[in-house]
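Hello again, I could really use a second opinion on something today. For a while now I've been wondering how a particular protein folds. Please have a think about how the structure follows from the sequence. Here's the protein in full, and shout if anything looks odd to you:

***
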Amino acid sequence: MNCSFCFTGKQGLKRNLTTSEIVGQFLQAWRWLAKNRPGEERILNIVFMGQGEPLHNFDAVKKACEIFLSKHGTSIGVQRITISTAGYIPGLKRWSQEIPGVNLALSLHSPFEEKRNELIPINIKYPLDEVLATIDKIPLNKKQFITYEYILIKDFNDTPDDAEKLGTILAGKSAYINLIPFNSFPGSHYNRPDLDKIEKFKEVLDTFKIPTLIRSAKGDDVLAACGQLNSKN
């Protein structure tokens, strides 16, 4: 999707994964755990996130979910699977009928169209207001939330006005917000905000009574954190 804050996306699209490749990643992780951490091989959650647009590869992702959910497959509970999207509306429209019950996460990153256009170019074709309206039509199970991912970039989308607008558009929804401080990578002109500013952003969201978590970075010292993975480096 060529998101400007994502080092992974700078590689461009070569092809989509097949269903067998998707399921194979799960099996490889399971086998590694079974060999190296006996007794800890049970995998409780599956997340389609971090590289590519899952809903752009809908049929393969759908089939993989069916295998993960099946008692003849890996028998993972439906609410243990989360699929992330940048807002690919054709895939979202198929969601309700074809993969109901699976958790959805939206890469939101800015409530303002101009800023979101810069961060997520697909927003030009599928604007945020249309994406949110489509998501609102997806039926949710009891106590199920839509997760909204929000990357915090210093002096770009981390102001009280940004937080206020974000809270306004999500207020009253079954929403959960993940705040992700930006992880820098070679060639990026973005920077991570100071912790104090991150916490103040969260404080504004707290006034809207929206559950919000600040995600801690892991692996950023070796370019392995969120948005940093790139096979060319």
Remarks:
- Strands lie at 46-48, 81-85, 103-107, 146-152, 175-181, 212-214.
